[in-house]
Amino acid sequence: MAVDLADLFYKAASGIFNLYAKLIMRVEVKGRENIPESGPLVVMSNHISYLDPPLIGSILPRKIHYMAKAELFENKIAGAILKKLGAFPLKRGTGDSRAFRKAIKILRNDQVLGIFPEGTRYPEGSPGEPHSGSVMLAIMAKSPILPIGIKNIKRKGTPRVNIGEPLILDEYFGKKLDKEEREKVANEVMSEIISLVNE
Q: For residues 140 and 47, what is the distance between their CA atoms, to the nearest angstrom?
């Protein structure tokens, strides 16, 4: 059986960051039992720090393929590392069909997709408006959403990661939602994330 070097690299990086999170950051994690062991999954969390992707990646036992802003891939070395870690570029504000197809393919292969619905980092306690397209990927791929709330990464206090129960939006599967409906569902998911932050 061939060895996947990208997966080995991901596991090694996740393991190293996991030690950093435990020993240096002293992060407390709640809700590990809510992580599905198999099947398609969209991981969504608030975004307050550059540490968020590796932190979540070090906690989940499954590899996460993050949609990341295309600017991060402009540096060839950084871009190569990000791709080894499973990330792929998204051209924000353009309706990036290539990134959309890549995301759907990941989910249809029963893998894990990582999305920050706010689209960029926001100060803790001041969440941004969620992008409605984020939930459409889960709906189109008939995938559950795993909501995660991160807190105290850049503030005083114990850093915490709260993992909620998977959200299954099956009432929307197979439906074509209009803009208002998409925004409504995105706000409902974001509200769940915020409630986890505030626990």
A: 24
As a whole number of angstroms, the distance between CA 187 and CA 35 comes to 22
Beta carbons within 8 Å of 158's beta carbon, 6+ residues apart: 26, 27, 28, 152
User: Structural domains in the chain?
Assistant: 5-197 (3.40.1130.10)
Secondary element (H or E) of residue 57: helix 52-59
- For the stretch 98-136, pLDDT in tens is 999 999 999 999 999 999 999 888 888 888 899 888 899
The CB density around residue 126, as the number of other CB atoms within 10 Å, is 7
Position 155 pLDDT exceeds 60: yes
Radius of gyration of the chain measured on its C-alpha atoms:
16
Instruction: Evaluate whether 86 touches 10 at the Cβ level (below 8 Å).
Output: yes
Q: Are 37 and 111 in contact (CB under 8 A)?
A: no
Beta strand segments in the chain, E: 28-30, 41-45, 64-69, 88-90, 112-115, 145-151, 160-163
Report the C-alpha gap between 169 and 36 in whole angstroms: 16
